[in-house]
Q: What sequence folds into this?
């Protein structure tokens, strides 16, 4: 698993903690992570996680490296307007991409091939190169447009992993609920993890 390269994007949907936890686990698994955080996602991180990370590329990078405690060669930050980023090109794109949490606006633009920023372009690259793309959509209730966009992407091979925690493993904390969802996301990209007790697994 060591050496795989993931693009990990956070949008302005609620559930920023899922993105942070996914980054922790990818880094712990020895993967390299190219992180994208939209402007709205910075606001959600502040509201939900209590972190103030807005700033220029160097400032955000410093915040991320300090938070995750890793070296610059393992984690990089890419502003959403940086369409010259390597992950915007099929010739140097990531091995897989995860958008967690994924807003319905972002999901819609990916479904339509509307590459107006780096996140959407990187997702489009995953589709055109036939590489794994996982979206973790956060919205409820879902309307017909949401469902149709998800169906369209699913038919293109995109993994849709809604944050729906299970309860058969008797979660004892909010962290247990988060870890279940993140574990399912990592399963979708072939990253081994022990974040939750699997059905039938003994303690």
A:
């Amino acid at each position: 698993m060591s050496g795989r390269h993931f693009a990990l994007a956070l949008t302005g949907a609620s559930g920023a903690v899922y993105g942070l936890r996914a980054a922790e686990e990818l880094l712990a698994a020895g993967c390299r992570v190219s992180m994208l955080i939209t402007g709205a996602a910075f606001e959600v991180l502040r509201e939900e996680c209590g972190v103030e990370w807005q700033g220029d590329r160097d400032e955000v990078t410093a915040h991320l490296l300090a938070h995750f405690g890793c070296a610059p060669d393992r984690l990089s930050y890419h502003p959403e307007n940086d369409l010259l980023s390597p992950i915007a090109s099929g010739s140097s794109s990531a091995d897989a991409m995860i958008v967690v949490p994924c807003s319905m606006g972002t999901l819609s633009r990916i479904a339509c091939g509307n590459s107006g920023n780096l996140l959407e372009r990187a997702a489009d690259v995953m589709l055109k190169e036939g590489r794994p793309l996982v979206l973790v959509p956060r919205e409820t209730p879902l309307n017909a447009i949401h469902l149709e966009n998800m169906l369209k992407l699913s038919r293109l091979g995109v993994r849709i992993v809604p944050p729906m925690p299970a309860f058969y493993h008797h979660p004892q904390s909010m962290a247990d609920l988060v870890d279940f969802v993140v574990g399912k996301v990592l399963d979708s990209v072939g990253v081994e993890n022990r974040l939750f007790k699997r059905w039938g697994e003994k303690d």
